[in-house]
Amino acid sequence: MKKVHLGMLLLLLLFVSIGSGCIGGQQTVTVTQTQTQVQTQTQTKTETKIQEKIFIRFAGWSAGETEMKNYEKIISEFEEKYPNIKVKYEVIPQMFHENILASFGAGVAPDVFYVDSSWAPIFIEKGALHPISEFASKDFINQFYPFLLKPFEKNGKLYGLPKDWSMLALFYNKKLFEKAGLTKPPETWDELLEYAKIITEKTGVPGLAIYLGGFNRYVPVAVSNGAPRPWFEKPEDASWFDNPIVKETLKWYIDLYRIGHVQMVKEGKKPYVVQPSDVGAGWLGDAFGQQKVAMVISGNWMIPFLADQFPNFKYGEDWDIAPLPAGKAGRVTMAYTVILGINSKSKHVKEAWEFVKFVVGPEGQKELVVKAGHTLPSIKGFENDPDLWPQHKKTLSFIPMYNDLIVFLWGPKSGILENKFSDAMASAMRGEITVDEAIEIMKQVVKEELGG
Amino acid sequence: MHFSFSSIYEKTKTKELIAGLALVSVAVLLNMVFGYFAMAFAFYLSFFKWDYIGSMKFVGLSNYKIVFEDIIRGIHGAPYLLSPFYTGLKNILIYTAIVVPIQTFLAIVLAAFANQKIKGQQFFKVSYFLPATTSSVIVALIFVWLFMRNGFINYILTHFIPGFQPIDWLNNRNYLLLAIAMVAIWGTSGHFMVSFLAAMQAIPKEIYEAAMLDGAGPIKRFFYITIPMLKPMITYVVVMGLIGALQMFDLAWVMAGANGGPGGAGYTVALDIYNEAFTRIRPGVAAAKSWVLFAIIFTTTYIFQRKYGRAVR
Questions:
Q1: How close, in Å, is residue A225 to chain B by CA atoms?
Q2: Alpha carbon distance B91, B71 (integer Å)
Q3: Is A283 among the domain residues?
Q4: At what angle do helices B84-114 and B176-201 cross, to 10 degrees?
Q5: Do B79 and A437 touch (CB under 8 A)?
Q6: Range A22-41 average pLDDT
Q7: Taking Cα atoms as reference points, which of B253, B267, B254, B263 lies closest to residue B92?
Q8: Given Cys at both, which of A122, A215, A399, A404 links A332, Cβ 3.0 to 4.6 Å?
Q9: What is the distance between the alpha carbons of residues B166 and A191, in angstroms, rounded to a whole number?
């Protein structure tokens, strides 16, 4: 009898252990914990001088398979150079910053993670990032373009170094332009709209693709027509939306889709503006690569994607890049940059810095950014590097044409504001609310988010 | 001295109690951690302002004020982006009013059919129950595909109804919620059918025999014996249905998207709680909203239980 009971109890214990395994998340986690416990126990017993392996967790989002492979490669190079440090690479595909914030709440934030310029103030203000200026020498910092460092500075401290940067440009399909009898890319915003209509009429392919919403893609239109840069720090800053230029340009931008798609479909005509999902594509780059649209406004990250996914769709022959169209007050483009931030609560800040230095330093950027053709290097001096892809070189050559280069940042709560603004804009683009209502909502959002 | 857990176990007088407690311990522990602790912590959180990184700031009832301002704004006809909670609440009440009665009625009908002694009834039982065993996300994805403008459902309707114009179910604000409700009804009726089947098989045969002697036909027997005898089970199913429908998240997430689709037509309270916590980074407000939702669900089910929940003795 005793045996039977023992068996039952063993079974019970098994259940309990499985249950507790579930509570701990994954069972593998508990296993590694016990291993480290065993390790530390043996260490305290024998007091050996064996160097313990230090684990760093590094989180980023993914810009495609190639980028992930390149990161894995650079990580293995780093681990060879620093045998006592192991880096665990984690990819968070969606809602990256929100996920990182939530992991801070749960106390399991990674040691090194991407931070986009628009989210930087939130992280810096809350003391989530370890100041880089403690480790990095002046000379090291001076290698970077100063305008890319601005979003990450506060009270004389620098909280991160950009891993690369990108700017918006106009990508256009040369073959479709020829078919429509157009010889050069559009010079002004009004021309862009006109060309979109002509191309749709002549070729049957939608002329332009935009995202539904996308406040950051609209800002260059506003500023190039004479509006001030958007900046929202206090509730009164909502008055930016009262500027007549803003009202006019926002209406123009929303009408791109509202008239160019929604109304056209209603009237049974072919839409000349689409969003990627209208043509069965995942994002702008995908729609452009599949040649389902003639023009998109996107950043340098599109270049390696096109080369990788659509090798027969050739740069120079089939498609080309042009600067963003000009408004009444000149040309303006957006710049996007991302740092590798170090978690201030990390136990291995020094090792994390070694890793960051390795990745964003000249050698790392040469591999990851320049050779891989990923985006634009954030370190000066690569402009004429033979390894820099011609497509990226071309976008760099547009810089003198621009009157202003706006880094993606509209104040301390940019990331959250961007989400809410885009919701309102998307709603207006679908024709659910008027442009004035959308403006009212955006003003309300600014007042709510920055009012105490 | 040899000491082991089993020897203690052998000596105890209350063997059954120990064994019983051991067996339920895992479930109770899980319920404590993920149920009651989470609830209590959410209540605590709902009085604080927090953004996950910094420290929590006590703000009293201001999170609840945000929720009620949202509702008042919605009643005054503000656009859905400015009154997301009200929009979600409105949608979820309409959705519940559609789903719960239909799914309960369907479940009874299906159970009555499955309770007959006909050939192949086992097959029907299995096929009705299958949707309940399928992941709701997969179900929603399949229905997204069926509900497309040139999808299967429109194809069938245009072929069988003359002059029917294809509906863009998922991109038309008038039909989106209806489409989600249909998927919910399809997915849950079979699940509740099993409950009714169990209740029907517990009805004593003698009652039916007596009724047959008195000359009651099958329809009469169904309405005068089966339905009244099922009353406690109907109450249970409606209450469970209400709780499930008012908390609906997964179907809306897949079929309408995180922002509730066109015009917020598929926006639900659960979606709003999620967005509040993870896109607007206001966990305090999210906790307040979830407690308001809890209050709504608790009162509805409580009133329903009080009115109809007394078992027939």
A1: 28
A2: 13
A3: yes
A4: 40
A5: yes
A6: 41
A7: B267
A8: A404
A9: 37
Does residue A218 sit in the same domain as residue A266?
Answer: yes
Q: What is the mean pLDDT of residues A69-85?
A: 92
Q: How many domains does chain A have?
A: 2
Paired tokens of A314: 């050739």
Q: How many CB pairs under 8 A join A and B?
A: 78
In a domain, A36, yes or no: no
Mean of the per-residue pLDDT values for chain A?
Answer: 87
* Contact of A261 with A207, CB cutoff 8 Å: no
Contact (CB<8Å) B51/A9: no
**Residue A161 sits in the same domain as residue A247:** no
Please report residues of B whose CB lies closer than 8 A to that of A102.
52, 277-278
Does residue A2 fall inside a structural domain?
A: no
Verify that A328 and A262 share a domain, yes or no.
Answer: yes
| A55, pLDDT greater than 60 | yes
The pTM score is: 0.80
* Domain identity same for A281 and A301: yes
Task: Show the domain range for A114.
Answer: 54-165+336-400
With CA atoms as reference, the chain B residue closest to A426 would be B262
Summary mean pLDDT of chain B: 89
Shared domain for A119 and A256, answered yes or no, is no
- Least Cα separation, residue A105 to chain B (angstroms): 4
What is the pLDDT confidence band of residue A23, given thresholds at 50, 70 and 90?
very low
The residue assigned the tokens 């009164």 is A236
Q: Going by C-beta distance under 8 Å and a sequence separation of 6 or more, which residues neighbour residue B94? A: B177
What per-residue confidence (pLDDT) applies to A353? 95
* Alpha carbon of B196: minimum distance to chain A alpha carbons (Å): 32
